[in-house]
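User: Before I run my own analysis I want an independent prediction to cross-check against. Here's the chain; please return only the structure tokens and, at the end, one sentence I can use as a sanity check.
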Amino acid sequence: MKILKFCPNCGNKTLNWDGEKKWSCPECSFTLYNNVAGAVAVVIRCGNEIYLTRRNQEPKKGKLDLAGGFVDPKESAENTCKRELFEELQLEIDIKNLRYLTSLPNVYQYKEIDYNTIDLFYEYRVSEKFEVNIELSEISETQWIHISEINFDDIAFDSQKKFFEEYLKNFS
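Assistant: Structure tokens:
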């Protein structure tokens, strides 16, 4: 995040990054906070299998991922789940059937910028497996994987790896 150098208020090359969450300008007292971004990840589950996507873009292109994405301004996390599942998978869901599981911090690196996120994990159970029309710009494929066969090295994001470690312990 230290790539920003010029103050957007006074234009001087005096913008300082604190190394964690804010830029400040000693010339004009401008302050810009880099707050945590909200994101959702949905475990679509049928019996003992989980529906995973394979990323078709950076970051982590080619790695497995849970369906989900960033929360838009003025949008609830549950509505984000609904929107993202439709955008990525053309899957219509009833948000009343979403079950919140946990949250974990993560770092999402995009074009050499680290975005700190809080990833909110939800579970959505279905009674039978399905196949969908995927959005190829974001996802290269989807697959049902038995929960015991998830390879943590193939999971895209650290927060999801940590999530699955706990999820497997409490799997029922």
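Sanity check: The chain is about 15% helix and 40% strand.
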